[in-house]
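Changelog note: in this version the structure field was regenerated for every chain. One regenerated record is shown below for reference.
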Amino acid sequence: MRLRSIAWAALAGLAIAALLHSGALVFATLAAAIFAALVVVSRRRVFRGFEFERTPERRVIGWGGRLEITMSLTNAKLLPLVWLRVRDRWPLGLRPQGFTLERSGWQDSQRLSQTLSLRWYERVRRRYQVRCMQRGLHRFGPAELEAGDPFGIAGVVREVAAREEIVVLPKVLAVPALELLTGRPLLEAPASRSLARDPTELRGTRPYRPGDGLRSVNWRATARTGTLYTNEFEPTALAATRLLLDVRVFEHAWQGVDPERFELLCVVTASLAAAIAGAGHPVGLATNAILSGDWRSVDIEPREGALDEVLETLARVVVIPPDDFSALLAAELADESGRGDVVIVTAALRPRSRRLVAQLRAERPTTVVYVGRPSAEERPFVDAVVPADFDWRTRDALDLLV
């Protein structure tokens, strides 16, 4: 209803009252017109001077961590909000502590519903505690607000964007078998298998052993003696490790994905990255996974302090059929500047990938961590296995069978 319509209706009522010479009709017409005008004006101004905010305590949080979310509603005007209903969209994977969340009609979301009233110039803050039980990039909003006029006749609905994002990192488990997996003492002893060595500090030469990289062959000593000799360099203080994550579980993309195996792959990779970085070694990451809202390839060079970026990247990978992992292995082989150890985390080693892994092992130390049960053809290429049914949600250490 508009004010113009109310005015015309009031004039019509007054005209009829004048024809009938009815003072009661005049009073009723004016009272109804004033009341209707007040309703219209209050409906127009019900959300004027009103602010809605939702603020997470942190933007990045570990899996299973507690997060406080503050909701602030401010009515900065004389007109009170007799009743206000808030329906706020929250992501799945947040477990409420001391309150309830309803299932929403939108995919991958739930809803916080509450009803309250706000007096003039009043601000209300409410704090909610949740536990973050699902890895990923999670989005809040929009929020739907419905407020009533002071007379309680009709409600006004308004949608507020109020979009917020949080990143829940994958769960990080202890890796007791890391030293056996890499063949490397993790603290003060020099790296025994790493190719991350200082090329300016030549220790000497020794006979070639299977597994030595071809780049380290001393061709002058080989030509003089007729036997392959390898240069030995002093190890660098920090041996870099590059994690290669293959998230494709099935042979063909049209077969879809396995969400549970996908999550386990992320947990294994995050745990290895944290263990390697915790031992003081630079760590990097490359994967064929796709990131939420970002279609660029993932390639984080090993460096000190890169763990946070690695974990946040693993948090953002989404369950979408990925590219072929063999392309990533081929790129790793073609990178002549690549040095350091390689740790491959995969749930399937296809024929081409097996050939590329063999070539990579000829270049530098390479370890394959297999999530699931490797086949007879895959087993010779696998160094460690994580069972497919490993319950990472309830465990504190990674069950790594070396």
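Spot check on this record: The chain has a mean pLDDT of 82. The chain is about 25% helix and 35% strand.
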